[in-house]
Amino acid sequence: MPSLNCEQVGNVRQNMFLAYKTLGVVFGGLVTSPLYVYPSMNLSSPTEADYLGIYSIMFWTLTLIGVVKYVGIALNADDHGEGGTFAMYSLLCRHADIGILPSKRVYSEEEPLLHDQSTKARRPSKLGKFFERSITARRVLLFMAILGMCMLIGDGILTPAISVLSAIDGLRGPFPSVSRPVVEALSAAILIGLFLLQKYGTSKVSFLFSPIMAAWIFTTPIIGIYSIVHYYPGIFKAISPHYIVLFFLRNKKQGWQLLGGTVLCITGAEAMFADLGHFSKKAIQIAFLSSIYPSLVLTYAGQTAYLINNVNHFGDGFYKFVPPPVYWPMFVIATLAAIVASQSLISATFSVIKQSVVLDYFPRVKVVHTSQQKEGEVYSPEVNYILMVLCIGVILGFGGGKEIGNAFGVVVIMVMLITTIMLTLVMVIIWRTPLYLVGMYAVPFVIIEGSYISAVFTKILEGGWLPFAVSMILALIMFVWYYGRQRKTEYEMVNKVTLERLGELLTTPEVQRVPGLCFFYSNIQDGLTPILGHYIKNMSSLHTVTIFVTLRYLLVSKVDERERILVKRLGLDGVYQCTIQYGYADNLSLKGGEDLVAQVTRCLQRHIETSTDRQSPVSTEEEVANLKAARLAGVIHVRGKMRFYVGDDAGCFDKVMLLLYEFLHGICRSALPALGMPLQQRVEIGMLYKV
Questions:
Q1: Coil, strand or helix at 323
Q2: Number of continuous H segments (helices) and E segments (strands) in the chain
Q3: Residue 369, SS3?
Q4: Contact call for residues 78 and 281 (beta carbons, < 8 A)
Q5: Are β-strands 512-522 and 541-553 bridged in parallel, bridged antiparallel, or unpaired?
Q6: pLDDT tens-digit series, residues 57-76
Q7: What is the DSSP string of 565-619?
Q8: How far is CA 539 from CA 11, 501, 629, 638, 641, in A?
Q9: Pairing, β 682-690 against β 635-645
Q10: What is the DSSP string of 499-530?
Q11: pLDDT of the residue at 225
Q12: Which tens digits make up the pLDDT trace of 275-285?
């Protein structure tokens, strides 16, 4: 019994420490929202009643969406500890046959990764069967998951711009002579410096993130309490929802349009779910309920209390309510908090891109792991510099906080509505929640978030077009890449080389077996890639030990180490098949090329020594000796590079999509460097496929 108590104390301490760490990673965007919520609102001669109504809207938005939806429900819809829209999509695909890409639809009754799922859990519900039958419904579901990822990337562009710009804008209070262009230039300089530092990783400075955000989280509510006592002690009467009703009855259309500004109070709440893989559910819940939620409620109450007595100061709603004696300390804390919030979203964007590349939904870009201890800490040079250009473009192009706020509102609420819809599907298909309980969740949140969306859509021409443009471009890139990869897979399956055909090729006098170990990479598992026949005919040789390697991307977060590498004999002398399995949160590099070779050969040697199914004409000892000799003779990695030749007789859709795919394929990185193969060991074999 005492040991159990010690264990419980240890778990509490661990959760409290993790909760403290989440302040600097998960909640940066959410807790810095007071910097720009009121300045982003297009208020016109507001009254005390208007401010009470606005505060009531913000209070209930934080309570319902933040506490009820995310903390109470969404955090339970994790996929082996990973969160976010794509994690829910993978969860749905695993419990019903609703995936799109053939390479992803790999789960069966005997799938090892699903051995812990009961037969009942695998049996689809009526809604699951509908998705299985309807290719249109499956495509819409995939599009929603992709759109959720694209919107998060849009968040990575807008959060640094609006948070840093709003923080630096505090200079204009004490120094009215500081012009808007100067504030924009300073903000741009800070962000350029932040992006240039990304390649060094955040390990060396991340220990500062939580103290900075803790200082922000605990100082702003203190100022809020001071403002409440000093300006309007009765502010908490606005918690009553009837102030919301009175606000809309009084302001009608203008009140509805102001929802586009109030929605910014919940910016960053999606990060609670998206960053679930880096922290525990309990830690995020503790942090939000014990510090984030009370801090935001008190800070917004203090801002509103100040504005009720200074109704026209909403354009600088944060710095105006800060008492003069603590103005400069708060300016420093606000600027540092804005930088930390920006870093959180930049890191999240890198993580999303990495997951998309691993799952083959996005062209290959360079992904560098900047920390030996933290597997999730990654950096992509191409993505980093594109983000930097777009962030600086947003600051210099929009300038004003209202325009950026309009764009930000679209991103925030679209991601939340997508989460609501997918969470509803999880409830019905996986959790088998009674329909009346599903309705009690889905109907109110669809109404709330639908109302917000209808309001932010009126801001499309006033800055809201930006995230749509970015998301559509990203979605187009993803869809073009997906279409091209699908066409290649179809061609390879139709023209694959069978084991019988490979045996015939190897028995011809022209083909020689040369010393060495060859890793031949293929996209298909049922058969061998057509490029193999092309290679043997032109090279007239095959290495004495040839391992056909397939990278198998599974819709799970991480694959167990014991199931990472699967090997088997193919029935021909010195010819084997190897399947390397990855989840979307796994490290694709396998710690370098030499380590990959060592791991595969070790697994193959173990398979040869323990296998009871003897398919080799030589003894076990001789087969192991041949493997070791081949490795000593030299290792080579062969990858096919199949290109489309789009003929004049191809359809218009194919011409456009495949030409775009060829352009993307031409500028993206090879898969072999991503696996860390030494340059001198790599060989690429080209082959044209006429469409």
A1: coil
A2: 25, 8
A3: strand
A4: yes
A5: parallel
A6: 999 999 999 999 999 999 88
A7: EEEEE-SSTTEEEEEEEE-TTS-TTTT-HHHHHHHHHHHHHHHHHH-S----SS-
A8: 61, 17, 22, 12, 16
A9: parallel
A10: HHHHHHHHHSTT-EEEEEEEEEEES-SSSB-H
A11: 96
A12: 777 677 888 89
Q: How many CB atoms lie within 10 A of CB 472?
A: 12
Tokens representing 646 are 């789009």
CA distances from 627 to 490, 499, 609, 631, 632 (A): 33, 20, 12, 6, 9
Per residue in 468-477, pLDDT tens? 788 888 888 8
Tell how strand 575-582 and strand 541-553 pair up.
Answer: parallel
Length of the chain: 691
**Which residue is it, tokens 């695993």?**
94
C-alpha distances out from residue 508 to 23, 32, 281, 528, 536, Å: 66, 71, 61, 19, 11
Residues 6+ apart with CB under 8 A from 108: none
In the three-class reduction of DSSP (H, G, I as helix; E, B as strand; rest coil), residue 631 is classed as: helix
Secondary structure percentages of the chain, helix, strand, coil, to 5: 65, 10, 25
Q: Which two tokens stand for residue 544?
A: 């004495």
Q: What is the DSSP letter of 68?
A: I
Q: Residue 663, Cβ neighbours under 10 Å: how many?
A: 12
CB 323 within 8 A of CB 124: no
Judge if pTM exceeds 0.85. no
309: exposed, middle or buried (C-beta count within 10 Å: 0-12, 13-18, 19+)? middle
Beta-strand pair 635-645/575-582: unpaired
Q: Is 26 helix (H, G, I), strand (E, B) or coil?
A: coil
3-state secondary structure at position 117: coil
Structure tokens at 360: 């083959």
